[in-house]
Write a structure and sequence with these properties.
Blueprint: H1 18-24, H2 41-49, E1 58-62, H3 68-75, E2 80-85, H4 91-100, E3 105-109, E4 136-142, H5 144-160, E5 171-177, E6 185-190, H6 202-213, H7 220-225, H8 233-244, H9 257-273, H10 282-302
Parallel strand pairs: 1-2, 1-4, 2-3, 4-5
Antiparallel strand pairs: 5-6
């Protein structure tokens, strides 16, 4: 029995180490999935502390793998931990953790890219967007194979205030690894803003940013030019950069958030003036042009030219 006036805290009982779990279930990181196991519990504890005070919080962990970060989250005395794991090899080890933490750990065998989290936690946790963040946290060690599409998906969720952000401004603490063979881990903590810096539709912002960075080592006008059909590319790109007051010789990595805001605002006005512009895809134009040239060459050959 806990002493009067003291609040009992949950700690996992003695368990096999992560290294022993990997050996027991014959687990191996798959390079094609960019998997990398975090074996040092001191490191996983440090990652989890970056999320802040998790006592009595509800946590959604993506890609728990053999359960290193999972253990650290459970030891933070959370109310409930929901883990979504696609790889069936990790389920037995996670089940061992669930048995050691009755009522604390819920395991879902599924894909984080398609898993619907909107109804996974109690509705009473929901907060207005303008209020403080809800007592829900997303924590994950993201492999390269899923990090980019998942982050883009979550950014769109933030814009639409759905998915994990149907509860409010849900906080995220995510780790990113440089290479599969390296142990260097970068930890990033996200808290959605109450008001977006760029007040344009997500798909418009995504398209402009993707085009800008497709030639990341070139001047920014190269990538931005791909927003426009070839016949008007030079003129329209110049107009976009001039109205947005952006130096065309800046490289994509040199563009600031204010630069992107100006570019998105001007591009939106240009799309409003030409309803077909936003639907333009330079790859489709390139494909059609290539097909046309092939047909022309075939016709010339058939006529002996």
């Amino acid at each position: 029995m806990a002493a009067a006036g003291k609040v009992s805290t949950f700690r996992l009982p003695p368990l096999p180490t992560i290294r022993e779990i990997i050996k027991l279930f014959r687990l191996q990181a798959q390079k094609q999935l960019s998997q990398n196991f975090l074996l040092d519990l001191r490191l996983t504890d440090k990652i989890v502390r970056k999320a802040g005070n998790l006592r009595n919080a509800y946590v959604y962990e993506v890609g728990p793998g053999p359960g290193g970060i999972t253990r650290s989250i459970l030891n933070a005395d959370v109310a409930e931990l929901l883990v979504v794991e696609k790889d069936t090899r990790f389920i037995p080890g996670l089940q061992m953790l669930s048995d050691a933490a009755p009522g604390k750990l819920r395991i879902v065998h599924g894909d984080v890219l398609t898993f619907k989290i909107e109804k996974a936690f109690p509705g009473s946790l929901k907060r207005q967007w303008e209020d403080d963040p809800p007592n829900i946290h997303i924590i994950g060690n993201l492999p390269f194979s899923v990090s980019t599409p998942l982050i883009i998906k979550w950014l769109e969720n933030v814009s639409c205030r759905d998915g994990p952000f149907a509860y409010g401004r849900t906080q995220m603490t995510l780790t990113f690894q440089k290479e599969v063979a390296e142990v260097d881990v970068g930890v990033v903590h996200f808290t959605p803003l109450t008001e977006p810096v760029i007040k344009q539709p997500f798909k418009l912002v995504e398209k402009l940013v993707q085009n800008t960075f497709q030639f990341r080592r070139k001047y920014c006008y190269r990538g931005l030019g791909m927003l426009f059909p070839e016949a008007q590319r030079l003129e329209s790109t110049g107009k976009l950069l001039q109205l947005a007051d952006v130096d065309p010789t800046l490289r994509p990595c040199q563009l600031s958030l204010s630069h992107f805001k100006s570019l998105c605002d001007v591009y939106r006005k240009m799309c409003d003036g030409d309803p077909q512009l936003f639907a333009y895809n330079f790859r489709e134009e390139l494909k059609q042009s290539k097909s046309k040239n092939q047909k022309k060459e075939a016709h010339q050959e058939s006529n002996g030219l």
